[in-house]
Amino acid sequence: MSRLLQIERETIILFNEAETAATVETCSPALQRRMDAFCAKSPACCLLREDEHAKKYRCPKSWIKVQMPRQLTEEQRQKLRERALKTLKGRKEA
């Protein structure tokens, strides 16, 4: 099995307003592993087709999320940094 270049590893997500399910077709090995795990955990997700590079899945449309990454101010970022350092310091002492 030949490996695809990163630019060739496409993911296509299709759904419409009338149906409750979406189809996800991907050549991304990481996304395939994630979708395979979902299929193992839930009967709501299933593998429809598999070929040499791609896999096609059906899952609930509600599982598909498009959201903007969290936007932190510099002050929030500094507080999170301090909390993380405090936590790491506490673990090293234990």
Helix content: 25-40%
Q: Beta-strand percentage?
A: 15-25%
Give the class from helix and strand content and strand pairing. Answer: alpha+beta
Helix and strand pattern? EEHEEH
**Based on DSSP secondary structure assignment, what is the total number of beta strands?**
4
- Major sheet: arrangement of strands: 1-2-4-3
Largest sheet: 4 strands, antiparallel
Label the overall shape: elongated
Tell me the Rg in angstroms.
19 Å
> For the terminal residues, how far apart are their CA atoms?
48 Å
* Low-confidence region ranges: none
Overall pLDDT confidence: 94
Total number of helices:
2
Strands, helices and their partners?
Layout: E1 11-14, E2 21-26, H1 29-41, E3 46-50, E4 55-60, H2 74-93
Antiparallel strand pairs: 1-2, 2-4, 3-4
Keywords:
2 helices, four-stranded antiparallel sheet, 22% strand, alpha+beta, 94 residues
Structure summarized in a few sentences:
The protein contains 2 helices and 4 strands, in the order E-E-H-E-E-H. With 94 residues, the chain is of the alpha+beta class.
